Amino acid sequence: MPSGSRPGGLVFNEDKTQIVHAETGFDFLGFNVRRYRSGKLLIKPSKAAVRRIRGRLGEEIRALRGAEPAAVLRALNPIVRGWAAYYRTVVSKEVFASLDAYLWQLTYRWALPRHPKKPRRWIMRRYFGRFNPARQDNWVFGDRDSGAYLVRFAWTKIIRHQLVKGGASPDDPALADYWADRRRKGAPLPLDRATMRLLKTQAGRCHRGGQLLLHAVRSPQSPREWEQWFRTTRKAIKTQHIAY
C-alpha cells in the first residue's frame, strides 16, 4: 500500500496533513477544535474565521457610507444571519456577543457623518432603539421609516451537536436508517416560529410555483452558502409567497 494511503483508495495529502496534540488544537472548515485544561474538548469559531467576518463587516460598512439605513440592513442582515447559522452548533456565545459589540460600533460610526451638525444623543435616538419588539434592547440599529432593524448574532440560538453513536459509520448500509434519522433531527433552520408554521402548512412549497422553498437533502455548508440562502431562498418565504 502506498505511503499515506488508506483502505478504499483514500490518500492523505502529506503537504496538508498535520499531527497535533489535542491540547494544541487545530482549525478545520472555519472551526477550532481543542481540548482545554478542564478536560473538555470544545469546538469554537476559529480566530481566522472571526477576523474574516470582522473584516467583511468593516468593508461593507465603508462601502455603504452615504447610503440609506434600508440599504445597510439589506446588505448586513444576510451576512449576520448566515454566519450565525453556520456557527450555531458550536461554542459561539462569547464570539457572537463580541461581534455584536463590534457591529454596533461600526453602525454608530456610520451614522455620525450623516448628521455632522446634530448632537450625538439625537443620532442615537434616530438610529438606535427598541426596534425588535421581542427584545428588551434599546440599542438595536434600525430604520425609523420602515421599522426594519439589524439582527444580532446572539439572537441565533445555539444548538448543540448531537453525538454520533460509537462505531457508527455513514458507509455502513445497516445504519442507513440511523443516519437518515440524524439528518431529520439535525439543527433546525434559524427561522422564526411563524414562518416555520406557515412552511409546514404548505409542505415547504411555494403556493404559486410549487417549488420547494427549503433544501430537503442538504443544508448550506459554509457561512457564504448560508448567506446566499438567506438572500435567495428566504425571499420566497415572505408573506406574499405563503398561502394563508
Provide an overview of this structure:
It comes from Streptomyces marokkonensis. Residues 51-128 form the Group II intron maturase-specific domain. This is Group II intron maturase-specific domain-containing protein. Pfam families: GIIM (PF08388). It is globular and about 65 Å long. By secondary structure, it is mostly helical. Among the domains are: 47-155, no CATH class; 192-244, no CATH class. It is built from seven helices and seven strands. Strand 3 and strand 4 (31-35) form a beta hairpin. Helix 1 packs antiparallel against helix 2 and helix 1 (47-63) packs parallel to helix 3 (93-111). The protein has a three-stranded antiparallel beta sheet with strand order 3-4-5. A two-stranded antiparallel sheet has the order 1-2. Helix content is 36%, strand content 9%.
